[in-house]
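User: Teach me something about this protein's shape.
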Amino acid sequence: MSKEQPLAIEYDQPLCPLSHSELVAKLHSALRQKRFEHVLRVEKTAVKLARQYGVNVQKASIAGLCHDYAKQRPDEDFVKVIKEKGLDPDLLNYGNAIWHGIVGAEMVKDELGIDDEDILNAIRQHTTGAPQMTKLAQIVYMADYIEPARDFAGVDKARQLAVTDLSAAVAYQTKSTLLYLLKQGVAIYPETLATYNAWVPANERKIE
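Assistant: First, the predicted structure itself:
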């Protein structure tokens, strides 16, 4: 049984064909326990931020729960979707860290029946970011980064920024993530660089 207790939220039918409890059950069956508890924490963080910033709480709940829906799927599932749906073939040069958001959103749409583009874009962008992000996408991007179990250098500053200046928080996370990837010497997905260019220079003074 999960240590994390799910929220009690009712969904409007156009946003999600499943009830909140049904969606939570789907996530529980799709993910290992540790990952499942993570998505419950992300949901709670996203809902809290949504209430603060006047964003639809139901959308924040759904996107927070579903952001890692495909995280533990085998690589061949992603490759199949990329090819069948004619997604950017450059995606094939990357892996799960990129796929579970961008390609995972297609799985959320097809398998869970969630077709609201605001929700799907928040899922698509939750790891790479994007030059243009809705408030919902910004919230899910940050909620995944700062949920209560996260423990890394800089997380406290990220949490503080998330509740005081959301765009500065996005810039802070993007800069920190890019610096980490550069130190790892891994290939950087172009959208991450575009996110950096769009968000960091405009907020640099706020995140120093």
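Now, about its shape. The two ends are 42 Å apart (CA to CA). The chain is about 65% helix and 0% strand. If you'd like, I can walk through any region in more detail.
User: That's plenty for now, thanks!
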